[in-house]
Specification:
The chain is an alpha+beta fold. It has helices at 20-31, 59-67, 71-79, 81-84, 97-101, 127-145, and strands spanning 5-15, 37-42, 48-56, 90-96, 113-120. Helix 3 (71-79) runs antiparallel to helix 6 (127-145). The model has no long low-confidence stretch (mean pLDDT 95).
Amino acid sequence: MNKIFSILHARAYSHATEDLDKVKMAVLSTVGEADFNVTSGEGHHGNPIEIVEVAVDKEDDIIRFFERFDKKDIEALKGTLNARVDDGCNLFVKVDKQSAFKGIIKLGTGDDVISVRVKVRVFPAKPELAQSAADAFLTQLIRKKD
């Protein structure tokens, strides 16, 4: 298979009521080994927030990220690609942060998530080509799950 992904960026927020180490563990559970970049920020009401970010550039690790989802979530990703791929050929996925801390990788909603952005490699760099490439990749993953 041709190289389809070039880089994965993940970001999670650790609010004042959360344990930063647990948030880091959830991110590691999601993307595998990676170097963290933690920056301090401030919430809407002045509350302290730590922002945990990682980047993964090994395609095998990026593929493993997608393989960890169950078939139902992969089908959901596939069915919503048009809303998940932007003009820059980035594929956006939200992972449930609490489940990730427990080692379970599943799609998340709302704010308590790990936000993942994966760059899809296509030439020319057009969103419809990125959607098509991601669709073919996810279709293969679904077949592997059968």
